[in-house]
Specification:
Radius of gyration: 24 Å
Order of helices and strands: EHEHHEHEHEHEHEHHHEEEEHEEEHHEH
Bound molecules: 6-O-phosphono-beta-D-glucopyranose
Strand order of the largest sheet: 14-13-12-11-7-10-9-8-15
Number of strands: 15
Structural class: alpha/beta
Shape: globular
Helix content: 25-40%
Number of helices: 14
Distance between the termini: 42 Å
Largest sheet: 9 strands, mixed
């Protein structure tokens, strides 16, 4: 693979949570892995007008030291640090930003490309895009736009219009970092590089699908962002439905960006409008006492719901999605439950829960991730007794993990290379918001749940009945998970 051309990367929201936790450490990891271009400069930007170059370098150092896999030392760090500069983004006075970008470009010899990363709240998108359009900065540039992309169908359409007044769709990279995860990308390999799984990957053989992303994290000081967003917009409409798209899509004619995204977006077009009666909204006890949260807040910190994909392959198969804060485990798991064989000829004493541990495919896509085929096997002995068993592939120990990139790292690299395959497209996002409209217009009330639980009971069990949630695992499928 040939590397990207020389780049000036402009990071809007340079002092924000995302820049500190993911983007600066991720860019530095790309540098240590030799995946940044030979010539690169990173211009941090915020609305602050004061000169911040040294403060930005110090912030980047702390961010990489705290959150990075590669620590900020040695010659690679020195080069990285020297590449960092700062230019204030003030739509009334674009001078400082222009000057910083020009200085960075000149230091690279004047033939570099521009990549803008909008790691800013959605409310700030329009003014920054306007600034890029009013100056010549948008010309031949690429722009990475963070999620959530709008807050409903109308705002997503308006945002797309704003973006398209300045950028051609080929320049736009709407990012969803779950799509950059190795183990999500591996679902394409599992499904389409093997003859084993795809023949059963449909309504004839699969009775339900779960995409379950519980988090142990609480608010982590993000009340300002989270209060106006909630679990549905933060996680479901973005990460979980994108993963659903990868699980449910038909085989593309190739892995090139257009056919891959065409097939994924067809799934979103087939999403049945979400019925509010099929949604459980929860709020962890104590959320309203968090700093910055309204005492009567009705923001959900948890959502579980049932979705349907009304197409030839999936009609009638429920897709259960769940994600929430302050839950019992941090996991990222897809479960495909297989239909029962037509005849039960084994006298089995298994409880229903243990019975359910067989006969499914489980994909853990939390880095580094694993895949298990769970089945029922005969226990040795004279009697025909069944016990759940698994065949498991684990990334850890199977491949050289050092080559692995985190979601953001992979996607920033792809954006520099101009590859849009793993980025979301405007039509797909609009289909998702369209299907979400009944829920957004009629959200059920939030139900309290205890921190450290799996969400509000009995609502979550009733939602999925007669199936159980795969998590928490009743049998261990991979060392370190389950009971
Ligand atoms: C982000 C959400 O997009 O994804 C966070 O805003 C969430 O609320 C995070 O915690 C989860 O991603 P990861 O990669 O840290 O598991």
């Amino acid at each position: 693979m040939s590397g990207p051309d020389d780049h000036v990367i402009v990071l809007f929201g340079a002092t924000g949570d995302l820049a500190k936790r993911k983007l600066l450490p991720g860019l530095f990891h790309l540098a240590t892995a030799g995946l940044l271009p030979d010539g690169y400069r990173i211009v941090g930007s915020t609305p602050a007008r004061s000169a911040m170059r040294d403060a930005f370098r110090a912030l980047a150092h702390d961010a990489v030291a705290t959150f990075g896999r590669s620590k900020p030392t040695g010659p690679v760090w020195k080069t990285f640090e020297e590449s960092l500069s700062f230019g204030a983004a003030d739509p009334q006075d674009p001078g400082p930003l222009l000057a910083a970008v020009r200085a960075a470009e000149e230091s690279l010899g004047g033939a570099s490309r521009r990549l803008f990363h909008l790691a800013i709240p959605p409310s700030a998108f329009a003014s920054i895009i306007g600034l890029l359009g009013d100056t010549d900065l948008a010309k031949n540039a690429k722009v990475i736009v963070e999620k959530p992309f709008g807050t409903d169908l109308a705002s997503a359409q308006a945002l797309n219009e704003t973006i398209h007044t300045v950028f051609d769709e080929s320049q736009v990279f709407r990012i969803d970092h779950f799509l950059g995860k190795e183990s999500v990308d591996n679902i394409l390999a599992l499904r389409f590089a093997n003859g084993m799984f795809e023949p059963i990957w449909n309504r004839d053989h699969i009775s339900y699908v779960q995409v379950d992303v519980p988090e142990t994290l609480g608010l982590e000081g993000r009340a300002h962002f989270y209060e106006g967003t909630g679990a549905f917009r933060d996680m479901i409409v973005t990460h979980l439905i994108q993963v659903l798209g990868i699980v449910a899509m038909d085989p593309p004619v190739s892995l090139a960006a257009r056919p891959l995204r065409d097939e994924k977006d067809k799934v979103f077009e087939a999403l049945r409008p979400i019925e509010p009666a099929h949604v459980v909204r929860g709020q962890y006890e104590g959320y309203r006492d968090e700093p910055g949260v309204a005492p009567d807040s009705s923001t959900e910190t948890f959502t579980a719901l049932r979705m349907e994909v009304d197409n030839w392959r999936w009609v009638g198969v429920p897709f259960y999605l769940r994600s929430g804060k302050s839950l019992a485990q941090r996991r990222q798991v897809i479960t495909l439950g297989l239909r029962e064989p037509p005849l039960r000829m084994f006298a089995t004493e298994l409880t229903d829960q243990r019975q359910d541990c067989g006969n499914k495919i489980v994909i853990d896509f939390g880095d580094p991730g694993w895949i298990a085929a769970a089945f029922l096997a005969k226990e040795p002995g004279p009697a025909m007794r069944l016990e759940p068993a698994t065949m498991t592939f684990g990334y850890a120990g199977s491949f050289c993990e050092e080559n692995g990139l985190e979601g953001y790292e992979r996607l920033i690299l792809d954006a520099m290379l101009g590859d849009q395959s793993l980025f979301t497209r405007s039509d797909g996002i609009e289909h998702i918001w369209r299907a979400s409209t009944p829920l957004l217009e009629n959200p059920p009330p939030v139900q309290p749940y205890a921190p450290g639980s799996w969400g509000p009971e009995p609502a979550i069990s009733e939602l999925i009945a007669p199936h159980p949630w795969h998590l928490p695992e009743a049998v261990q499928m991979f060392p370190g998970t389950g009971t």
